[in-house]
Design goal:
The chain is α+β, with helices and mostly antiparallel strands. It has eight helices and 15 strands. It folds into two domains: 117 residues, D-amino Acid Aminotransferase, Chain A, domain 1; 156 residues, Alpha-Beta Barrel (D-amino Acid Aminotransferase, Chain A, domain 2). It binds N-(5'-phosphopyridoxyl)-D-alanine.
Length: 285
């Protein structure tokens, strides 16, 4: 079955789904994106993703290309046309096409919209969660506005590649203050010896993950204690458990950091439980 993408008003076979070479997303990474999990053919926590999208667009002064309700309809349609029951839907909005000039185009142009969807292998993801993942730490080298979900991801790409080359799955950024900020494509968490879950606050320095926000509601409901504060790699290596969260993988236990086992080197019980309970608390659209 060929895959279908939505590009600026048209549903196209992925092979013919092109954008203009002068798209500012292509030339300047001048755009934003969202990734939603798809489960049972439905979008997980979609309203929250749309709210974050709206904020990202506002921060970069990119116009909304269409009402968000219409965008939602198209995203569902792309999921349907690709027959994705379990997987991801990807949405990207860039400032649009204009002759290359760093400053915004003088005459406003229409933002470009691209939406794709793809199936993920459920059994494989379950297996990854069951074995846990390894992370490495890398120096924080991103711009300070990582709270905006922009497509400008070159440092994240390089960090992820370094992780892969070192036999790990994710890289955790460590700021000049010595504290972990977040992963290259996930938020970072630890669990203390007495069962408190720790993650840094989302006011600056990290992306305010949607999975992170929903997970906090899960923890409140399960009466799991939460501490919003930064932690160092040294504390993480001594922690009872560690895990990462993102829309694409929900909760994945971390079993080693920089080659050092976390806890007993096996996925921890708190992370496992949070992963199992998560979708009881998420909204399906
Ligand atoms: N990444 N931090 C970063 C830098 C991320 O790229 C992501 C998500 C997160 C978690 O956010 P959320 O829970 O809303 O997915 C945190 C997506 C999945 C990606 O780039 O593919």
């Amino acid at each position: 079955m060929s895959r279908i993408a939505y590009v600026n008003g048209q549903y196209r076979d992925l092979r013919d789904a092109n954008v203009n070479v002068e798209d500012r997303g292509y030339q300047f990474a001048d755009g934003v994106y969202e990734v939603c999990e798809v489960r049972g053919g439905r979008l997980v926590d979609f309203p929250r993703h749309m709210a974050r999208l709206q904020r990202s667009l506002r921060e970069l002064r990119i116009a909304e290309p269409m009402p968000l309700s219409a965008l939602g309809i198209v995203m569902h349609e792309v999921v349907r046309r690709n027959r994705v029951t379990y997987g991801l839907v990807y949405l990207q909005i860039t400032r649009g096409v204009a002759r290359r000039d760093h400053a915004f185009p003088l005459n406003p142009v229409k933002p470009s919209v691209v939406i794709t969807a793809r199936a993920l292998n459920y059994a494989k993801n379950q297996q990854t969660a069951a074995s846990g993942i390894k992370v490495i730490t890398v120096p924080e080298n991103r711009w300070p506005r990582v709270d905006i979900k922009s497509v400008s991801l070159l440092p994240n790409v390089l960090a992820k590649q370094e992780a892969r080359e070192k036999g790990a799955y994710e890289a955790w950024y460590v700021g000049t203050d010595g504290f972990v900020t977040e992963g290259a494509s996930s938020n970072a968490w630890i669990v203390t010896g007495d069962g408190r879950v720790v993650t840094r606050s989302a006011d600056h320095g990290i992306l305010a993950g949607i999975t992170r926000a929903v997970l906090m509601e899960v923890m409140a409901a399960l009466q799991i204690k939460l501490e919003e504060r930064p932690f160092t790699p040294a504390e993480a290596k001594q922690a009872a458990e560690a895990f990462v969260t993102s829309a694409s993988q929900i909760v994945i236990p971390v079993v080693a950091i920089d080659g050092q086992a976390v806890g007993n080197g096996q996925p921890g019980g708190v992370a496992k439980r949070l992963r199992e309970e998560f979708h009881r608390f998420s909204a399906f659209s």
